[in-house]
Amino acid sequence: MFSPASTPARRHGANRWAPWLLLASTGCLSQSYEISAPELQRLVGLDPEERGDHVRVTQQTAFGNDTSGMSTELDAADWALLIASGTSHDLDLDDSDSGDDEGDDGSAETALAVAVAAVAVTATAALTVGVTEGVRFDGWVQAPVQHPVLLVDAWGERRWARLETLTFDQVRGVDRAVLPDFADDLRRLERHPLDRAGFVYQLELGAEPAAFDGASLAFAARGALGFMPDQHYGFLFGAAFASASAEDPPQRPTSATLGVDHRVFLQAEAWPLSAGAWHLGPYAELGYAWARADDPLGTRAADGWMLAFGAALQLEWTTRLAMTLRAGAAWVPSVEPAAPLAANGYRLAPALTLGFSIY
């Protein structure tokens, strides 16, 4: 399922969509770079001629851009006028907003339809955010020492200054500073390594053994949202589902033709091992799971607590985006007593998934 496209037509299709994805992602990014308050304090402590050599910045998005009301064609005279015009300058920010359910019959088909719709929505959102974060720059730049700096305090007040003339009095109480790059004066140096601290979003697709005989591998999908207090561990709340259909007609009336498992869980993960861009660590999940199977006589269902464990291999892509390969097994309720690795109404469901984590 994750193998590269093998036909010229598929490769042509992928190449056709790639520029559009890149355009959509860059359209979400701005030409402004944010400097944190601690970094600003560090810069002010340097000699003026050294302040632009190595500046830690994060590229702002179009939705959180402090210079969104400014023209992209400001020349040197315009900058001088902005800075000399006073201690505060209000930007023209645009804050305008653009302005019968069916019942669940409890069948596996209905559960599958709901799960597929949820995966489609989250995958679309995750792809947009993932591509954007993959292109977004977070690292160090080199800037001219006379470059204009927009200072933003905790109350939203803005005032202009120059990098070389900043003083400790000017940056006292400043929440952040912004370096606009409308004239391509900033030179990107290197990206910051993967930074997991903060909120995290995960989306992965893969496969696991089907819950009944006479079926292909079950399609599996999982997503999670959580927080990483530290670079090396975190906690997430997630959901997963797996679905398979029988390849051959049922041999007996109670043989399942369609099966769907879904679950919600609390996940703990750790990343203790690293080698360059590669990271390895264990994870565990505790939650609740439901299983449904359709057969010619109707629908069978089971539910109960679930436990999962395994390991994940991660490749850092950028500062806030990493590819994740996850291998594990979950102990989940089963509606098929004869299912592989099943006992006492439960079965062991190994799974392999591949996806990305956005930090």
Description:
The structure is a single chain. With 359 residues, the chain is an alpha+beta fold. It folds into two domains: 30-92 and 140-191, no CATH class; 194-358, Beta Barrel (Porin). It is 19% helix and 45% strand. The chain is built from five helices and 17 strands. It has helices spanning 8-27, 37-44, 76-84, 108-135, 168-171, and strands at 29-36, 55-61, 138-142, 148-153, 158-162, 174-180, 187-191, 198-208, 218-230, 233-245, 258-270, 273-275, 278-295, 298-316, 321-333, 342-343, 346-358. It has an eight-stranded antiparallel β-barrel with strand order 8-9-10-11-13-14-15-17. Strands 5-4-6-1-2-3-7 form a seven-stranded antiparallel beta sheet. Strand 9 and strand 10 form a beta hairpin. Helix 1 (8-27) packs across helix 4. Residues 1-26, 71-78 and 85-104 have low confidence and may be disordered.
Can I get a quick summary?
The protein is of the alpha+beta class.
List keywords for this structure.
359 residues, alpha+beta, Porin, 2 domains, eight-stranded antiparallel β-barrel, seven-stranded antiparallel β-sheet, 5 helices, 17 strands, 19% helix, 45% strand, disordered N terminus
